[in-house]
Specification:
This protein is of the alpha+beta class. 25% of the residues lie in helices and 38% in strands.
């Protein structure tokens, strides 16, 4: 019996010695690794030590909604002035060309016109008739003073003289309207610029014929203020309003922004593209040319509040942007978001998905890789 007790004590002693050797192993002394448990829906991740995960609290960002479209610089139609020739004839000289800048009163072209010759003929005949009737009226007054003619004959002579004076004035005004001086007979008429501006259309060449009140030889546009006409798709029209401000960026000057304002939204949709013409009035700083391509950014007058987070909190997966938001029970919910503009300081605007104040994982990619292990 004593031998059995001694053997049992020796076995217990050896067992205790073996346990002591196992406790000296460094790996056995290290704390267990964090265990990540996935919920059944695949969108929730549970971490044993959530306090070790770096979080970021989403902040609010006030902004105005923006819409970017393309457009073309065009003249302001109300500032287009046609150059009209009142005399028909053949062009003998052109002093201006398409694209030239002209001043009011400049001679644009000269036309040899039979209308001028006929006008001078009528004017000279009227002057001769006025001289004759004036002499006859003077004689009638002298005869009437000597009772040689009746009062009726004197009144007839006076009426004839007054009518001839009207004919002279009418013939002279006709010549002036045609652009000719009644006192300087000339078959060539000069066409002058009615306003200052840039010639944006030319429909005449050397030796071409010109019709009175026909096709306008030139069109002069005042380009101090121009239009930028844009195409806006049907589903974006609700975001565009008359009076909204716009920022214009020209392809030729990408580093310069020019302010403008929406003045008209077309009432007719393009049947093929389903777009409407939106007109922006812009004060031309001197660099905008007709036909230039431009990009217009519309900014709404109504302010909106969105969310702002670091770009590292966003995970792009399966063509969708996600963030990991912590839940009240300290789990991590993968939430789909819609991103907005890229902001300075490596920040990202979030239009929808999370609200300001939500706590999200600061490094979403690292967290996702850890969760997949």
């Amino acid at each position: 019996m004593n031998k059995i007790l001694i053997c049992a004590m020796l076995a217990a002693s050896l067992s205790a010695t073996g346990c002591g050797q196992e406790n000296t192993n460094p790996k056995a002394e290290a704390p267990p690794l964090a265990q990540v448990e996935h919920e059944q829906d695949g969108g929730v991740v549970q971490e044993d030590h959530p306090e070790r995960i770096a979080l970021f609290t989403a902040v609010a960002r006030n902004s105005w909604p923006e819409l970017v479209v393309t457009g073309v610089v065009t003249p302001d139609i109300s500032r287009n002035v046609p150059v009209v020739s009142l005399a028909a004839g053949r062009v003998v000289e052109i002093r201006a060309r398409l694209g030239d800048t002209v001043q009011k009163g400049d001679v644009l072209l000269k036309v040899r016109s039979n209308d001028i010759s006929a006008g001078y003929s009528d004017y000279r005949k009227a002057v001769a008739d006025e001289k004759l009737t004036g002499t006859q009226f003077d004689r009638a007054k002298d005869l009437y003073s000597h009772s040689a003619i009746s009062l009726n004959d004197l009144q007839v002579a006076q009426d004839a003289e007054e009518k001839v004076k009207v004919d002279v004035e009418t013939a002279a005004e006709h010549l002036r309207l045609l652009g000719s001086d009644p006192d300087k007979p000339n078959s060539i008429v000069e066409i002058h610029a009615p306003v200052s501006g840039v010639i944006t259309d030319q429909q005449v060449t050397d030796a071409a014929s010109v019709q009175a009140f026909g096709t306008n030889p030139f069109t002069i546009s005042d380009l101090s203020s121009v239009w930028v006409v844009c195409d806006v798709y049907e589903n974006h029209l609700a975001d565009v309003h008359i009076g909204d401000s716009a920022q214009i960026k020209l392809n030729a000057y990408p580093g310069r922004l020019i302010p403008g304002r929406i003045s008209n939204i077309g009432a007719i949709m393009d049947p093929n593209l389903h777009t409407a013409k939106v007109r922006i009035e812009v004060a031309n700083p001197g660099i905008m040319r007709v036909g230039m391509f431009a990009t217009a950014t519309f900014r709404s007058q109504k302010q909106e509040t969105h969310t702002e987070v670091p770009s590292t909190t966003i995970l792009h997966l399966h063509d969708v942007d996600w963030v990991f938001a912590i839940t009240p029970d300290e789990k991590f919910q993968r939430v789909g978001i819609v991103t907005g503009a890229n902001l300075s300081g490596d920040m990202q605007e979030i239009v929808s998905g999370i609200m300001p104040g939500a706590q999200v994982v600061r490094n979403a990619l690292t967290f996702q890789n850890t969760a997949e292990q």
